[in-house]
Amino acid sequence: MTRWTTRLPLAMSCALVSFGAGAATGPAGAASEGMLGFSTDHAALESSLEQRFDAQLDPADQSAWLKQMSSQPNQVGSPHDKANAEFMLAKFREWGWDAHIETFSVLYPTPKRELLELVGPTSFKAKLFEPPVQGDATSALPGALPPYNIYGGDGDVTAELVYANYGMPDDYKQLARRGIDVRGKIVITRYGGGWRGLKPKLAQEHGAVGCLIYSDPHDDGYARGDVYPQGGWRPAQGVQRGSVADMQVYPGDPLTPGVGSTAHAKRLALKDAKTVLKIPVLPISYADVTPLLQALGGPVAPAGWRGSLPLTYHIGPSTAKAHITVQSTWGQKPVYDVIAMLKGSSAPDQWIVRGNHHDGWMFGAWDPLAGNVALMAEAKAIGGLVKQGWRPQRTLVYASWDGEEPGLLGSTEWAETHAAELKKKAVLYVNSDTNGRGFLGAGGSHSLQHLVNQVAGGVTDPETHVSVLERLRAHMLVDGSAKDAKPEARAIAKLAAAGGDVPIEALGSGSDYSAFLEHLGIASLDLGFGGEDDNSGIYHSRYDSFDHYVRFGDPDFAYGVALAKVAGHIVLRTADANVLPLRFGDFSDTLDRYVGELHKLVDDTRKATEQQHQLFDHHAFALDADPTRPVGPPARDSDMPKIDLAPLDQAAKQLKQSAQAYQTAYDKRAAAGFNLPNAQRQQLNHLIGSMEQALTDPAGLPGRAWFKHFIYAPGMLTGYGVKTVPGVREALEARRWNEADHYAVVTAKVLDRYRAQLDRLTALLEK
């Protein structure tokens, strides 16, 4: 599973990204500013420590580990998945960590029978198989799961086909305008435009009896570049597997929402699991979908719906019926989380947690093992520092999660099991997932934005030999200057050009940070490189292999070392800082931006509503329609009342004042070398470490109480993609006006609690 727009082509990504405002205090990491959280003397020691850490990072280690760990299918429940966990356990112990494997039992259906065929007048039977390719040593190995979408429903259905483009809400609006009803039909959708799980969910909600999801070459095949093995992109029989669980309601084991799936946990009946779909779902290749698309009649698809296959794209219904059979074995499987700890010397009850998952859909060289071997390299180097006599002040917890691909299973179940301890002790979670050649991708809590910038400013990009920060800044500037640049890219470029911190992304979902950030309220980061590799063309397929990665990913593992440096330095600095390295003015600036976006959304929605109503009043839709190709008008939008965002405005204004006061007090203490009594320092760091929790509310978000963070959450209709200030934003987008007003008040109260805790921090610094 992955979620970075820089690491996936636009058509495969699904993030609606919000960015925080950059600081305007000069280049991050400038010597005059000092290292965030450190006294001058302590900063010099930290720099020396990081140099010794870097010296122990060997790309040959990552290459060897990746080759071994991707040598067999490693999906949940496979022998190699367990062997990889045991291999890492032995390595962590060898490097001096206190390590163990923590096992959870989760619902994990595996395919028993799959069939897709046309039953007349044209006959065709889909292969539903990825053949071996020349030059890929693992592509012919047995033991891998066939192409399937986990947590779809069982079923045996025969019905007409309808093509629904990406299968997103706007696509169904287009179908409705053309008088096409998907009730009782099998819907064909293509990957891209939004998260895969939304495609069958929306199909099911619109009455479809089955859903097919295919990879169009326009999005990740020959239209993007040479296909594997000649190039890195998806070949004709390549298939993207993946979860279709409704993880926007809750991730993790579908049968144990909110509690760890331990042996004695109370489990829901399968029929009551809200995240498991009811209709059969199959992922298929563009080779297998071609006869199905050729069987479609009805109107020609709109221009934006047409892919790159050599055929005319029609909407349907089909002239032939399709027959789908999906039968799974529904049972429990173990997931093996590898947990390694180094106890802190002076603050053992403050934890820095670092994670990456190790399970894949097939061999998983890029997703996830390229990130996992970087984590292992960090752990080895940290173990080397311990052997040299160093000890972290705070406790380090390194975790290699299992079961991420089906639905963030291992991380969620571990976090739910240890929720009380984590809320008391964890001050930071640092995640990675995929990794490749190119630009740094960084997202997370905006109180960590300055820390990321300082660290990135001190790590050299392997290709250009400038810092990875400055290369990222250049990338943002170029993207934002393009003629077809989106408004978001232009805004980012403007911030990057100011010369201060570059913005980091807000996090939605799609990887293992979700339970830490959005459920428990632990400040979190997600890191990785990409954008120049061709890994995304074989995403979740048989061809995500070691051979593919060393040709089209990161051939010399230079960016694996770069990831280990960035993540490792963040971990080390947080472990040893005099004062935890969070900066709350960055969050306040970002919140101002989000509130401004909400005002713009209100204004734009009002203008669009008025414009639509004028078009109806002037019969414009009817007069504009081609009588020979009838397209009906859209549904008339409801009237829009006055929306009251004043509570948010006031909360944001007051938070800015408090953040400025904190920064003034912090700067004075930093200039004095953080000369605080030990008890005062401990209290200060405890409060800083729990600040993110103040942005949560026990009641959670509307309709999905598992998600408790009121600033960051995955969108209900964006999948992995983030919705910032989600209670208000999603209510506005769904035209639930009373709910928008309500959550403006609720969110303001959350922000007021955050501000009150920030004021307590300031008072401690001013003592």
Structure description:
This protein has 767 residues and is of the alpha/beta class. The chain contains 23 helices and 18 strands. The model is unreliable at 3-32 (pLDDT under 50). The strands form four sheets. It has a seven-stranded mixed beta sheet, with helices on both faces.
Task: Give me a quick take on this structure.
With 767 residues, this protein is an alpha/beta fold. Helix 18 runs antiparallel to helix 20 and helix 22 packs antiparallel against helix 23 (737-766).
Helix-strand layout with pairing:
Layout: H1 40-55, H2 59-69, H3 79-94, E1 98-107, E2 110-119, E3 123-125, E4 149-150, E5 155-163, H4 169-177, E6 186-190, H5 198-205, E7 210-214, H6 217-220, E8 242-243, E9 281-284, H7 286-294, E10 321-329, E11 332-342, E12 347-357, H8 365-387, E13 394-401, H9 404-407, H10 409-417, H11 419-425, E14 426-432, E15 438-444, H12 449-457, H13 468-481, H14 487-497, H15 514-519, E16 524-531, H16 546-552, H17 558-576, H18 584-617, H19 620-624, H20 646-671, H21 678-689, E17 712-714, E18 722-724, H22 726-733, H23 737-766
Parallel strand pairs: 4-8, 5-6, 6-7, 7-9, 12-13, 12-14, 14-16
Antiparallel strand pairs: 1-11, 2-3, 2-10, 5-10, 11-13, 15-16, 17-18
